[in-house]
Write a structure and sequence with these properties.
Its EC number is 2.1.1.219. By secondary structure, the protein is an alpha/beta fold. The protein has two domains: 68 residues, Vcp-like ATPase, Chain A, domain 2 (Roll), CATH 3.10.330.20; 188 residues, Rossmann fold (3-Layer(aba) Sandwich), CATH 3.40.50. It has eight helices and 15 strands. The strands form four sheets. A seven-stranded mixed beta sheet has the order 9-8-7-10-11-15-12, with helices on both faces. A four-stranded antiparallel beta sheet has the order 2-1-6-5, with no helix packed on it. Strands 3-4 form a two-stranded antiparallel ribbon. Helix 7 links the parallel strand 10 and strand 11. The longest helix is centred in the middle third of the chain and has 13 residues. It is elongated.
Length: 273
């Protein structure tokens, strides 16, 4: 028999919640007893949410209904502060499925950016795994740290200010996956290879076809196989009785994904490691 008391998740002061009115009007906020949120649909008092279960409905002073939802990683990513262009959730699922991303893994990320992909990776490999992320821009890393903290993922991430292109000795070994989000990902492929386990995946975020082409050549030169280059586009559907149609909203091209696996072309460990 299910104990209902243990299935109820009450909202407390300091919790992040998603105030949901409709798909285009939703707000991610940390609730506090004395705070109010003013919008075109009326005033939402944070105190009205505190003590309620997630999923409860609130009514604004303009008699508009707002649902109080528990934020997901998707919500945190879509509402996070941007310091750079982010990797979107539409690409997360394919990366996870194609590479076998799972809890307990050791992941290296080269190019932290705003931390959207970092947040997702940490949410999957936690609590037993870890993400080691590297960047060279302090201002961008500060934004990523705030975003990771907000999503509750910072404890599963080690942030490093280091240019791995110049590293003679790699700081991490036996990684399950290395993800590269740089303008010239081929420049760091030798280091990525040294950090990976045998058969491990390297994934690169490539905004342009020219980058994709140059990287695919570099994959072969650095003894990677099972090369996979894809683009993922989401087209929303507005499903309503008698008038279902494609939405004018959607997320088109944001980036290309390039993936490959570490192998040994001579059927033995080469000097590429």
């Amino acid at each position: 028999m299910i104990d209902k008391k243990n299935t109820m998740s009450k909202i407390k002061s300091g919790n992040y919640v998603l105030f949901f009115y409709n798909d285009s009007k939703k707000w991610l906020m940390k609730v506090s007893k004395k705070e109010e949120f003013h919008s075109h649909i009326g005033v939402i008092k944070h105190s009205d949410a505190i003590g309620k279960e997630f999923g409860s409905r609130l009514i604004t002073n303009k008699d508009k209904y707002v649902y109080v939802l528990k934020p997901t990683i998707h919500d945190y990513v879509m509402k996070m502060q941007h310091g750079t262009q982010i990797v979107y959730p539409k690409d997360f699922g394919y990366i996870a499925a194609r590479t076998g991303l799972q809890t307990g893994q050791k992941i290296v990320e080269i190019g932290t950016g705003s931390g959207s992909l970092t947040t997702f990776l940490a949410s999957v490999v936690s609590p037993r795994g870890h993400v080691h992320t590297f960047d060279v821009e302090s201002s961008v890393m500060a934004i990523a740290e705030k975003n990771l903290t907000k999503a509750g993922m910072l404890k599963y991430v080690t942030m490093n200010k280091q240019d791995l292109k110049k590293a003679r000795k790699v700081p991490i070994v036996d990684a399950d996956m290395v993800i590269i989000d740089l303008g010239d990902p081929w420049e760091v492929l030798p280091q990525a290879r040294k950090m990976l386990k045998s058969s491990g995946y390297v994934v690169a975020i490539c905004p342009t076809m020219n980058q994709l082409e140059k990287l695919s050549i570099a994959f072969v030169a650095n003894e990677f196989s099972d090369i996979d280059c894809t683009e993922h586009i989401i087209r929303n559907i507005e499903a309503r009785e008698g008038k279902t149609r494609h939405s004018f909203r959607g997320i088109g091209h944001t980036t290309y994904l390039a993936m490959a696996r570490k192998v040994y072309f001579n059927n033995k460990r080469s000097n590429k490691k």
